[in-house]
Design goal:
Elements: H1 3-13, E1 18-22, H2 25-28, H3 39-43, H4 50-53, H5 56-61, H6 63-74, H7 83-93, E2 97-102, H8 108-112, E3 117-119, E4 122-129, H9 138-143, E5 156-160, H10 169-181, E6 184-188, E7 209-212, E8 225-227, H11 231-235
Parallel strand pairs: 1-2, 1-6, 2-3, 6-7, 7-8
Antiparallel strand pairs: 4-5
């Protein structure tokens, strides 16, 4: 076994206040693409890049095209939690992991059994009316066409943070609280270049910072341990 995996496993075994902070790389092993890395493919079908389609301005101006993209690319079906999601849920059950902080909107951590999940960017599994606030079931939005509307006539939107919108302040505050008080912080599947989410790592004050990402990150030199491997393969050995 790789000495880095052994070191990581030993750190986990000796910790009982762990926080995990993850990004898109956690879910790519479940078959959910990171649209940043395949933007060219999306451009073959859509007139606009994903960053523009998933902006608040675009949603207001072109809600039908917004939902066409979401139903095609974001409202994924038949995906299951991978080894990273499952092991994190197990660590929570064992009393070691206190929270999962995720930039993902796919709900796979909850599907794996994690209970304390802070969703920085919201989730595509919740929808609400912008006029009256009433919830609309995911299945109804997914199977429909065009822009879903509430019984009151209001436009329904996914409970996600779009480009140009700020993150939920209460979620950020809770994430900072968990990170600043944990004895081990595991950061996985994120390049740590998208702010303000990437800046959360700076609130960690402990001595067990582990970074797991296929590609090096700007914070690797600050980490106690940096592992440039598939995160699912790493967690399968812990």
């Amino acid at each position: 076994m790789d000495t880095r995996i052994i070191q990581f496993r030993d750190m986990v075994q000796s910790s009982d206040n762990i926080v995990f902070f993850g990004g898109a790389g956690v879910s790519t092993e479940s078959g959910i693409p990171d649209f940043r890395s395949v933007d060219g493919l999306y451009r073959q079908k859509y007139r606009y890049p994903p960053e523009e389609i998933l902006s608040a301005t675009f949603f207001r101006k072109h809600p039908d095209e917004f939902y066409e993209f979401c139903r095609d690319k974001l409202f994924v079906e038949d995906v299951k939690p991978n080894r990273a999601h499952i092991r994190l849920a197990e660590l929570e059950s064992e009393g070691k992991l206190k929270a999962v902080i995720t930039q993902n909107i796919d709900g796979l951590h909850q599907a794996a059994g994690s209970r304390k999940v802070l969703e920085l960017h919201g989730t595509t599994h919740r929808f609400y009316c912008m006029k009256c606030g009433r919830d609309m079931p995911y299945e109804q939005v997914k199977s429909g066409r065009g822009t879903p509307r509430c019984e009151c006539g209001g436009i329904v939107r996914p409970d996600v943070v779009l480009y140009e919108e700020g993150l939920n302040s209460s979620v950020i505050s809770e994430a900072i609280s968990f990170i600043s008080s944990c004895d081990m912080l595991i950061v996985g599947g994120t390049s740590l270049v998208v702010y303000p989410a990437a800046g959360l790592i700076n609130y960690y004050r402990g001595k067990k910072l582990v970074l797991i990402n296929k590609q090096p990150t700007p914070y690797d030199s600050y980490a106690t341990l940096a592992i440039n491997e598939n995160i699912g393969e790493v967690f399968a050995q812990v």
